[in-house]
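This protein record is not my work; I was only asked to verify it. Would you go through it and say whether the fold makes sense for this chain? Here is the record exactly as it was handed to me.
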Amino acid sequence: MVEMTWPQVSARRLARAGLAEPLAATPAEVVATMCGAHAQVMSAAELSVALRLENATRADVRAALWEERSLVKTYGPRSTVHLLPARDLAAWTGTLSSVPAAGGAFPPDRRLTAEQADQVVAAIAKAVDGTHLTIDELSDAVIAGTGPWAGDLVMPAFQTMWPRWRQAMGMAAHRGAFVFGPARGRKVTYTSPPDGFRPVAGDHGPLRAFLHAYGPATPEQFARWLGVPKRWAVAQFATAGLEEVSFAGSAAYVLAGDTGVPAGPPSGVRLLPYFDAYLVAGQPRELLYAGAAAQRALAGGQAGNFPVLLIDGQVTGVWHQRRSGSRIEVTVEPLRELRPAELGELREQVDRVGAILEGRARLTVGTVTVGAHA
């Protein structure tokens, strides 16, 4: 059995993620390499993608999403909002729609039945076909296309109540009924997927992409990242043609034959934003967030709630940005004293963040006083 160490795997992941050197790729190709970019906070998604490219800015990511449509915004891993490559949407929806439904989060009298959920998904797909609808417009169309029961206010949300049909939003996205459209002012819109789109199940596309980017990994780690039952993930691993290796003293899996590692150790200073894919997918977490990093940069064990300072493949601090017009104040809190060369690289990274966000960034090394996901 091939043995792989944490420094070897860390260097390999950094290289494949475009965090050792920028990738010669398009925004869509980078997002494919990342296995999706978390996009609940769009500015963080734009930064995640652009920092992996040479001389890219947030404008390039926006153009790929809203003009070229080589990217789509939809519900991805863990049923959270992600950017995904349009070319891979069929494989992603095929995989996500094949996951067994979880137990109902609502009491039976508030829950959608399976038949009602199917009706809602069909109504959403019909409503957004060829147009862009706000959530209120979509709600009116779904209720009109199904029945008054869909509009019952039974879902507690943000100190108000949402209509029953919204329980099926994640399911509808995973079945490919809609993707996000460009904002209308401050309002989110929903639209139909790219022309000719159909979900395709059974090709193991997301699993293979995950293992290429973040392997070696176990079924448990894949299940946690994707937000699916462990038993389902185990079955996927069993049929994907994988190779078992020894990673950091434990059994894990890579794509068959994919055991190569870079010659040198992990290196470089990087600033990664909220919920960067490298942070969320990287396992074992106790190796990526070693020592004091686990307490300072994780929130209840969850990765991504803090932007982090990454040095030589290890989480070595946290950071925060505050914008006022074109000025961006970047505060970085290292967990140890930085060497002169590291401080020089950090200044370059701050300049790069400013360029990506189309502003002028200034570095302060000091304590980050805001909390998680501030």
Remarks:
- The radius of gyration is 21 Å.
